[in-house]
Amino acid sequence: MSSKKTEPKKSEICPVLMYGEFMVTGSMKVRCSLILTETELTVQKISPALGGRGKVVYHLSDCVGCRAYRSHDSTDVGAYFSAYFYPLRTRWMRSGLARQRVEQCFRVAPDQNPSVNLQEAQRWSRAIRERVLHQRQQKTERQNHARELVREADLSKWDALVIMSGDGLLFEVVNGLMEREDWEEAIQTPLGVLPGGSGNALAASIHHFSGLQAVSSEELLISCGFILCKGLVSQLDLTSVCLASSQRLFSFLSLAWGFVSDVDIESEKYRHVGAARFTVGTLVRLASLRVYRGKLAYLPTENPMSQPSLVDSTATFRQRLPQSNSDSCCPSNGLLGHTLQNSSNSNNTPKSKQSNPSPLSVFGPTDFLLNPLNQPVPGHWTVVQDEDFVLVVAMYQSHLAEDMLAAPASRLDDGIIHLIYVKAGISRRSLLHLFLAMEKGGHLNTNCPHVVYVKVKALRLEPYSPKGIITVDGELVDYGPVQAQIHGSLARLIAW
Question: Which UniProt keywords apply (predicted)?
């Protein structure tokens, strides 16, 4: 049917964005009017005498998608768009509410030209998707907002916490959970990840652990969405990171100093190019390679890598999720007497990137392997003799970014910090070759004498250079002495 030119008066509650009249396809073809607002899609029968409900209002917060398409029948000049909803409805023969799948399909045929009809269907489909996306953008409003939300939230209302963003938002969520009085229970809330940032290192790691070929962008999103649907829950190591400012953080990904952290922070100005910002940042930093002085010590791991323990909690996890009756798919640390200064040496380190300082957390497991920062490391630790470094990075996941397989041997819950450091003296060409090889995890096989890889349980880094950048999970933290200890299987993650 034709799309009507005239529009109804604006709703008293929400302005009408689009109006049209179409045929609703299904068991009975019914002519209906369609009204789209910022929050709702209203379907109104033009001939109520046909029986059934004359008006149905769908909330866009219940919509999961909309698509436009042509019919397989070449003689049909009309085009179609379908919207998919999962509204809460009363269960049949059972008490309570559950989400049930509803598909609404509309035929668009105001013209005899199939291309014109398809363009109109696409216009409606695009408008609905944009309104749906707008509904979802309510989430976090400022830095550390997610941290505050999960710190105070009633977690009993949720089966899991799913984060669609880059690694920074998950960093906030993890630390918010660990700052609760009930942290031991709170941190057992399953965490899910959907890549939506420029780094997406944990999402890439989860995909890598599934044993599939490396993917990126939309394919990585689809893979992580599929993993969420499966609902398998694994254990996840967290690392306690103690700063000289008495701040204690919990890290799921990495601790970095030197080249890696420089690129991470200084490439913020290239964020508009997506994941390619790291490539651009790498080339810029290679052109002006820096050397940092400092002292590095670590506690080597005594045991070889253990097999990851996978807890199949599919039944338990899915039992708590709403079921559809239709289709289903889709230690304490002493203070040092001085502070060093964060600097990118280019005066463009974004202040918003830095994690807000907070007092040393009284919650969380004891860092029994660590001495206070104002005391020497234990005698059985290894102290690196070199004091000039290009980079130091400690990792507990396989990926440092979507396309950087930095620690191929890492597993979610192996209880190991994978420590990689590059000593001064490496050429720019060798360093570039190193990062190119990292795309497939071959950098540790380059036999470069300046590259050292060791598995550890704890470490301490004491920068001597007065300026520099240290990051935890890609987030800027106070520059100065820092130490860390891994705590095996502390959290839970929806993964293979």
Answer: ATP-binding, Kinase, Nucleotide-binding, Transferase
**Other C-beta atoms within 10 Å of 23: how many?**
17
What are residue 349's phi and psi, to 5 degrees?
A: -70, 120
Write down the pTM of the prediction.
0.67
Whether the CB-CB separation of 105 and 26 falls below 8 Å is answered with yes
Mean pLDDT score of the chain, rounded to an integer? Answer: 83
159, 167, 473, 478: which one is catalytic? 167
Sign of CA dihedral 201, 203, 206, 211: negative
Q: Please, is 358 exposed, middle or buried when counting C-beta atoms within 10 Å of its C-beta (0-12, 13-18, 19+)?
A: middle
User: What tokens does 464 get?
Assistant: 């001597």
**Whether residue 167 lies in the annotated active site:** yes
Residue in 54, 76, 79, 73 with CA at minimum distance from that of residue 2: 79
- How crowded is residue 327: how many other Cβ atoms within 10 Å of its Cβ? 11
Pairing of strands 470-472, 254-258: antiparallel
Sign of CA dihedral 140, 142, 144, 148: negative
Tokens 């710190």 appear where?
151
Place of tokens 């360093």: 431
Say yes or no to pLDDT of 313 above 60: no
Nearest to 395 by CA among 227, 249, 205: 205
Write out pLDDT tens, residues 175-196. Answer: 999 999 999 999 999 999 999 8
Taking the CA atoms of 145, 146, 151 and 152 in sequence, report the sign of the dihedral they define: positive
Give residue 400's pLDDT. 93
Average pLDDT over residues 165-176: 93
Reading the block at residue 15, the tokens are 């302005």
SS3 of residue 295 by DSSP: strand
Q: Residue 80, SS3?
A: strand
Task: Give the pLDDT score at 18.
Answer: 94
